[in-house]
Amino acid sequence: MRPVTLLFTAVSHYVQQNQPEGVPPLELTGERTLPDVPEENYWFRRHLVVYEWISDRVGGQRVVDLACGEGYGTDCLARHAKSVVGVEANPETFEHARLRYTSPTIRFERTLVEMFDETVDAAVFLQTIEHVQDADAILEQIRGNLSPGGVAYISTPNVLTLAPEGKERSDNPFHIHEYRPDEYAELCRRHFPQVEVLGLFHARKLKAQEVAIKFGWDSIHPKLGITKPFYDRFVPAITSSDFTLKRRDLDGSLDLLAVCRT
Q1: Predicted local confidence at residue 168, as pLDDT
Q2: Most-buried pick from 65, 101, 179, 198 (CB within 10 A)?
């Protein structure tokens, strides 16, 4: 069943706020999510909660964060990892990440994912495989970089809930291929002997919002003239605890996280 559609859509005309001195802010383009943009907070937290879940599982390990974007996820992984390499090809995004996240356990490299060639204990590749032309080649590259017993954490949106009702895929122009849960699991199992797929779901405030919409909230707030004031407060208040990862009901999940073991 398709979850209730909420009023959280990616926007393309916002710039990060309150950046540290000397760190150039990034503009939200819709290709990647950013922290420090209140209007983007739903999507940022939806990504961050998965980084936090992984961070708790990579203590003392050498980690690579492939297609790391702004760098907030690399910073999150470094809370517990022995070391983290953030790999990013875009020059402006790379420069921002390099200047903003300066922990001694973090290093950023400006290169393509396909060009990264170091041995690591864990590889993180989140919300990017849908942008890739040859997913099989990328997964083979990731597997080849893992040490014996290494783990790859790879996520993607679930097309069953991302695409509008009646459509085969979303309207995101940056996505090359969007995956169903069974299709995604099969893709990962072509390259890793052990694959577990988890689904990301709404919890707490966001789950309550889903219930409210089912009972007619979307017909009430416009009549009361409170749509913008309500969501101007609600969206920035969303936290990682408003999402949860589960091992069941994958067809109804928001995103799919494959935990792939060598």
Answers
A1: 85
A2: 65
